[in-house]
From TrEMBL:
Species of origin: Neodiprion lecontei
TM spans (from-to): 15-35, 74-92, 192-215
CDD domains attached to this UniProt entry: DnaJ (cd06257)
Bias (Basic residues) ranges: 524-538
Stated name of the protein: Translocation protein SEC63 homolog
SMART domains the record matches: DnaJ, Sec63
SUPFAM superfamilies assigned to the protein according to its UniProt record, in alphabetical order: Chaperone J-domain (SSF46565), E set domains (SSF81296), Sec63 N-terminal domain-like (SSF158702)
Region (Disordered): 494-616, 722-762
Matches recorded under PANTHER family: SEC63 DOMAIN-CONTAINING, TRANSLOCATION PROTEIN SEC63 HOMOLOG
Pfam families with a match to the protein in the record: DnaJ (PF00226), Sec63 (PF02889)
GO cellular component: Sec62/Sec63 complex
UniProt subcellular location: Endoplasmic reticulum membrane
Membrane topology of the entry: Multi-pass membrane protein
One of the GO BP terms on file: SRP-dependent cotranslational protein targeting to membrane
Length: 762
């Protein structure tokens, strides 16, 4: 394009504009997000903090874990302030730039009013030229050239026309595109340095940063767990499908997060060769003679010994092993969640026939039980009242007196204030106050369960093979709402101490090397009617294949209600019987009543249709809100846990799942609830059994932070037989061969164990 030219910024003015804009874009959001702010100290929260020795030590640990926090905050403030100072200096410098042709006004330059005569203009020019001429002491070459152009614009006819038309006495200028970089960048003598800087940034620094990020990302899963650790979990849980709690601790201690070769944060000290063997001698039933790899490696033995010492609350050297214990315990909740995920994946693979070993539900529950044990720092068989501050084994005898028998925290909270103080009479008032603070902040969960078949006309009727949706509603309250309230219904608490999976058992875990996929109790041969071998019996058994939901609801409602067609048949039979007098009259009255009933039912149907529309709209709104929550992401904030022996601030999390206690089988994947602040709703789905009968399943709620807060509720499903596919729909027709094969396959195995089968076996 003619008339255009590209030039670098010789004066540097454009470059300063670029720096000013770029620096402002960095400083404005950076100041808002990066400026160190001290958290506001809520007086109410400070008054509710526990002042026990364990909490005081934990505060010191949290402060010492960030030794450079104050230094980083001071450095950040200094950098932000320095940036704003530079920004102000650049703004001042840019404001001083006076471009030659910017807002060119000859009258203003000469200092005469517009419309002045030629003599006045010449007089003003002579006066200013004597001052601004370069040969004078007060001269200014740039200002003198500008004065000359202004004089020409007012005295020369052609220059005046150019100024009036183009705003410039010299006429239209060429279009120029400036590059906001100083010209010295492209100078020949500086080209080597510029190219070297480009090569250093784009060929060395940038690939190095991207490579380091990629190398780190491919080693970790989404939950920041090493992929090698995940593979280790898969191997051992597949090798030992039924795993005791002691075995789970061994697998957890073998995680590669505790191995120096995979984690640079691990510290190996020369003193470990003396302190670790001494600690192992103090712990019984550690399983130190196990020869499996990597369970027999030194890092695994050290981590296992530290976990046992943590659960037994053994004192350790504060400069060496105590620091290692804090680091290992801090990593455990994330690793245990990964273990739960791995066991669940193995169960799904076993159902899909991809592996030959089916992990038991006890294995996944032992993983869940281990998490609150590590957070609170004691074994599962200990009394849950030890989670309260200042409570020791000596104080437990007052809880277990013959008159009281207080075994749970909920029972203790429901006592009257005088009774609680009488039990803790050996403690001081400040210690009793700490206990009440912690007890009042502990969770009380209202656990409600509702099961239905969504998108069905009759959601409370369960047919074989239907998708059952169990909605679990969790309402979280503080335990202080129970103080002195004996009317609260006792919750069904899961007692794992009776399961026989003790944490410090003497028995070694049984290795099931040759175990094949054993079907659950509800996947076994059904006790059905014997097949007839007589000739000529061509009756076909009904198919067990699933049918459309509308057909299911129609057939089920027809079975439950007496239809008008059936009533008309009964009336016709009664009219044909001459021995029964008054039957016709009775039938007439029945017909009249039927008409009135039909009219009432039509109105009821209209009302029910309106109600159904409202319920459908509510469900639609709930689905939209749930999708929005999913898009926003999961929150990780609920309520802080009182855990003095856990070296970090811990939030309350929960697991929700459905299982079959009779067959020891997991039906749904455990959902990790991480945002239960006040209310949370979780939906669990599973397929109903293929055979009709009455089934009992258990919905479980487990805490990953507290011991003794696990709950369970049973749901009973009266599964009806799935109706046959209507023959008037050719698109649903199934060949006789396929139907016979399906019936034979269905007769071979039933899907669930009914309560009747269990009673028969007993």
């Amino acid at each position: 394009m003619s008339g255009q030219k590209f030039q670098y910024d010789e004066s540097g003015g454009t470059f300063f504009y670029f720096l000013l804009s770029f620096l402002a874009l960095l400083l404005v959001p950076g100041t808002y997000y990066l400026w160190p702010r001290r958290p506001k100290q809520d007086p109410e929260l400070l008054s509710r903090e526990c002042q026990c020795d364990g909490c005081k030590k934990k505060k010191i640990i949290l402060q010492s874990s960030e030794p450079w926090k104050e230094t980083k905050a001071l450095l950040t403030k200094s950098l932000i302030i320095l940036g704003w100072v530079i920004l102000l200096l650049l703004a001042y410098k840019v404001s001083q730039f006076d471009y030659e042709m910017a807002n060119f006004d000859p009258f203003e330059i000469l200092g005469v009013p517009s419309g002045s005569s030629q003599s006045e203009i010449k007089k003003a020019y002579r006066k200013l030229s004597l001052i601004l001429h370069p040969d004078k002491e007060t001269g200014n070459e740039k200002a003198f050239m500008k004065l000359t152009k202004a004089y020409q614009a007012l005295t020369d006819d052609e220059a005046r026309k150019n100024w009036e038309k183009y705003g410039n006495p010299d006429g239209p200028g060429a279009m120029s595109f400036g590059i906001a970089l100083p010209s010295w960048i492209v100078e020949k003598e500086n080209s080597v340095w510029v190219l070297g800087l480009y090569a250093l940034v784009f060929m060395v620094a940038l690939p190095t940063v991207v490579g380091m990020w990629w190398y780190r990302s491919i080693r970790y899963s989404g939950d920041q767990v090493l992929l090698d650790t995940t593979q280790l979990y898969y191997f051992f849980f597949h090798k030992t499908p039924s795993m005791t709690l002691k075995r789970v601790i061994m697998i957890l201690a073998a995680s590669y997060e505790f191995y120096k070769g995979r984690n640079n944060e691990i510290v190996e000290r020369p003193g470990d060769n003396e302190e670790v063997p001494a600690l192992i001698k103090q712990i019984s039933n550690l399983g130190a003679k196990n020869k499996e790899r990597p369970l027999c490696y030194l890092y695994s033995l050290k981590a296992r010994a530290l976990l046992h010492a943590h659960l037994s609350r053994m004192p350790l050297n504060p400069e060496t092993l105590e620091k290692d214990r804090q680091y290992i315990v801090k990593k455990c909740p994330y690793l245990i969640q990964e273990m739960v995920t791995c066991v669940n994946q193995l169960i799904l693979l076993a159902y899909a026939r991809r592996i030959q070993r089916l992990p038991s539900i006890e294995t996944i529950e032992n993983c869940m039980k281990l998490c609150p044990m590590i957070v609170q720092g004691f074994w599962e068989f200990r009394n849950p009242l030890l989670q309260l501050p200042h409570i020791t084994d000596d104080n437990l005898k007052y809880f277990l007196a013959k008159k009281r028998q207080i075994k749970s925290l909920q029972q203790f909270a429901q006592l009257k204030g005088e009774e609680r103080r009488q039990i803790l009479r050996a403690l001081t008032d400040s210690q009793y106050e700490d206990i009440m603070k912690v007890l009042g902040s502990m969770p009380y969960i209202e656990f409600k369960v509702r099961s239905e078949v969504i998108d069905d006309e009759n959601p409370t009727v369960y047919t074989a093979g239907a998708i059952v949706t169990v909605t679990v509603s969790l309402t979280r309250k503080d335990m202080k709402h129970l103080f002195g309230d004996n009317t609260v219904k006792e919750q069904t608490i899961i007692d794992d101490s009776k399961s026989g999976a003790a944490g410090e058992g003497n028995e070694e875990p049984v290795e099931e090397e040759n175990q094949t996929l054993k079907k659950p109790a509800w996947v076994r041969q059904r006790k059905g009617p014997k097949k007839s071998n007589k000739k000529g019996s061509n009756k076909k058994a009904p198919s067990q294949k699933a049918v459309p939901v509308q057909a299911q609801a129609t057939v089920t409602s027809a079975q439950q209600n007496n239809t008008p067609n059936a009533r008309r048949k009964d009336e016709a039979k009664a009219e044909k019987d001459p021995n029964k007098e008054g039957v016709s009259d009775a039938s007439d009255t029945e017909l009249d009543s039927e008409r009135s009933d039909d009219e009432e039912s039509s109105h009821d149907k209209k009302d029910s249709a309106v109600d159904d529309d409202d319920t459908e709209w509510e469900r639609f709104q709930q689905k939209i809100s749930k999708r929005e929550k999913i898009l926003e992401g999961r929150s990780k904030l609920s309520h802080e846990v009182h855990c003095p022996l856990f070296p970090e601030a811990k939030q309350e999390y929960w697991w929700v799942y459905i299982c079959d206690r009779k067959s020891h089988t997991l039906l749904t994947a455990p959902v990790h609830v991480t945002s239960l602040a006040t209310f949370e709703e979780v939906q669990l789905r599973f397929t109903a059994p293929r055979w009709p009968g009455l089934y009992t399943f258990t919905v479980c709620l487990r805490s990953d932070s507290y011991i003794g807060f696990d709950q369970a509720q049973d749901i009973k499903l009266d599964v009806k037989e799935a109706p046959e596919i209507p023959t008037e729909h050719p698109q649903w027709d199934i060949s006789d061969e396929e139907t016979a094969e399906d019936v034979d396959a269905g007769d071979e195995h039933s899907e669930f164990t009914t309560d009747e089968d269990i009673s028969d076996n007993e």
